[in-house]
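Q&A log
Question type: sequence-to-structure
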Amino acid sequence: MSGLGNITRKEIRELLTPATFVPIILVALIFATMGSSIQGIQEKSLAPPTIGVITEDNSTLGGIASTILYTHARSVYNSTSESDLQGALETVKQQNGVAVIVIPKNFTERITQEKPGTLQIYWIMKGAGLMDTISSSAVESLISYINTNISKALIRENTTVNASFVLAPTQRAETTYFKSREFVGLSPSTISGMLSSQSLLIPIVMMMIIIMAGSIVITSMALEKENKTLETLLTLPVKRTSIVTGKIIAAAVIGLILAVIYMIGMQFYFSGFQISSGVNLASFGLTLTSTDFIWIGVSLFIALIAGLSLCMLLGTFAKSYKSAQTLTFPITMLAMIPMFITMFADFDTLPLALKVFTFAIPFSHPMMAPRALLFHDYTLVVGGIVYVAVFAIVTISIVVWVFKTDRLLTGTMKFKWLKKMKIRRF
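Response status: OK
Response body:
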């Protein structure tokens, strides 16, 4: 038992290091911040939707529709004339509302003639993430509830009504306003689905190559320490800057090869599961040009360089192959977090704290680039490339400085201003 206890204590001492726990603590704090921010978004989204209502039909069935809207939603603009539509849209937009619903004059008349009554819905779309469409989904539920109550009223008044008509007595004429564009005939859920199918590939590919290439860099540093090849490399007449740059470029080449392989495979995967919506993105101007793909490629490459330089910095803390396995965890988390953020919410609709946090993660920029370029938001893309380039340069400079110290060989760093105190820092 004493031998077992000694081995257990030895393993605990080797694993119980700041390099093991500091990244995990930082990731825990990141998740706590994300959780509180997303909870705030969810609570706000689950509140009654803010809408504007224009009722031109005050008869029986029009009254049913307007009563349901006034009861189950927060109406900030009420009118009886469709000529007030622009004013309604401005008011609802200022109140962070989701839609203006118009009940036309002939609504009841058409239904009594067994013709679908048209509800005109003018959507105000703020973002294309899953969380951003919760409010619009609530309004769509109200429309379905209106349809159900009108069906009940028709059955009560006339038991011989056409069965196929009574199940769907209303129809929707939809127009969506999103990022200064007008999409006639499309709802926010349709637009969100189309954009998700277009921009989901890059986040997954980025996450996979960062995890794969990052783990290669960290473990290679650990293996070089274990095999004592790092000592030989550092004694060669080669600049430390060249050593760091060469390692990063080699890993970047491998990462780009992996990216191409993953993109081809994932493209076939999504095309196999994609359900055609019958809507052509090109007809609405939502297409990426060859220049846009160049911007995405530059953003992806710069983010990969930044990620690999960060991995190399973490790799300097690896004393063995076993300890290197724990250091890949924070890189994995930093790659996964922006992927989920870009899926659940649009960057423009994030709270300020979460927006700053997302922008600070270098891996998030190539993930946000496709959607931003679809709407010609070059400021976010170019700004992200500049930021990630600066991040990469600073990180590489730190790695070069570490290579010039005795940190790689001794596992410690000596600081001149602490020499007199004979203190050694890790």
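Response note: Residues 194 and 279 are 9 Å apart (CA to CA).
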